[in-house]
Structure formats: C-alpha cells, structure tokens
Amino acid sequence: FDKLDNLFTSVEVNKWTEASKEYKKRVKNLDKTIYKRELERFIVEFSWKSAQIEGNTYDLLETETLLTQNIEAKGHSKEEAIMLINHKKAFDTTLENKKSYLKLNFSDVTQLHGALAKGLSSSDIRKQEVRIAGTSYIPPVSSIDLESYLRETIKLINKTSFPPQKAFIASFMIAYIQPFTDGNKRTSRTLSNAILLAHDYFPLSYRNVDVNEYKKAIIVFYETNNLYHLKKIFSGQLDFALINYFK
C-alpha cells in the first residue's frame, strides 16, 4: 500500500485533466437522446469486453442483442448471459448512484460485487484459498485479513486526490487481493469506471485490448508488483475513449 502514490507523471496528469475537460464539453453539448444512445453503446462494449476477459464467448453483436433486446444467443450457456446482464445492471446502478463513488465505503464495493456475481457465485468475503492460473502468486486466505485489506484499499483510494489515480488503483487492487470467491477483476474494472464517471472523466471500455496482453499485465503485477504494463493499458484506453465515445 505504501508504494501506491505518485503513480502518474505531470505529463500524464495533464493529459487526463485535459481529457476530463473534453468529456464534460462533449456531454454538455450532446443531445440527451444521443447521449443516452452513446452511453448504451459504451455499456454494451464494456460489458462484452469485461466478460470476454473472463472467458465469456458471446461476441459483440450477440452481447448487444442480449443487453438491448433481452434475447439470448444460441450455443452459449445461461451463465454467460447472466454474466453479461449482471455487467449492465451493475453499471446502471453505478450511474444511478454516481455521487456515491466520489468517496467509497465498504458497502459500495461489496454491493457492486454482489450485483456482478448474482446468480453466478457467492457475494460474501472469501473463506477459502484460491489459486490463479499462470502465476505462483497466492492471494491472502483469511477472511479477516481479506476484509482488512479491502478496507485498506478503500481508505487508500479515498485519500488519493487525483481521480484517475483513484480509478487506476481500483482497477488492479481488488483483483490483487481477491477478496471474493469470483468476480474480482470484473469488480475492479466496474468500480474503476464508476470512480471515473463520478469525477467526470471518460470511462474505459477496454474494447480494443488484447485479452492475453491484459492477462499478462495482471500476472506481471501479481508476480513483481510492476504496474508499467497495466498503466500502459489504462492510459491507452483513455486514448481510445477520446476517439470513440460521446462524440
């Protein structure tokens, strides 16, 4: 926790600050109907990619049909549809309670995870050991420790002043601690976006991220605590958002 400070250079801070100004300008100038349509498109693309990272085999068009028309695609499991629908419902909830994510509390995180995990896995703090494919890193085991580490993460995010750094920390620390049986990375990504939106920054869809590169970046962090690759992805998604959303 003591190393998670000053993660952004002055150049990066300026880049995010200018992007926030652009985001606010675009949202202000967009027709409400177009803004709603753009937000819906973003949610579809984020839900699809976040689920794909977890092994979901729905393609983007199938995801759009599911989330906008509630029609499940043939040849896929019910669980895959639930995962995608949960993403949308969880994201909708963060939008309805946008200001809650200006300063986090413990229930904000556990309720968000509960929405993502509904019908798929337990929403309680994990009580058993988990192993992560591709790495020798073993997350904490004790449920008491896990709750303590999660609370420390929330405290760290709240005391961090620069909103994109808050969001960046959220994007990897819950995945690192693994406080829940499943859905930790989904919670990290969704919480990160909730923080960005609460502070009027572009949300990140991860739409053009290579899944294997993302997984490798996570594993590098698990193994070495090196954030270079994860921050490169995070920053790259801001570039992607500037080009593709709310225009």
TrEMBL record:
Domain Fido: 104-236
Pfam families: Fic (PF02661)
Taxonomy, superkingdom: Bacteria
Keywords: ATP-binding, Nucleotide-binding
Site (Important for autoinhibition of adenylyltransferase activity): E54
Residues at which ATP binds: D182, G183, N184, K185, R186, T187, S188, R189
UniProt xrefs under InterPro entries: Fido (IPR003812), Fido-like_dom_sf (IPR036597), Fido_containing (IPR040198)
GO molecular function ontology, one term from the record: ATP binding
Protein name per the record: Fido domain-containing protein
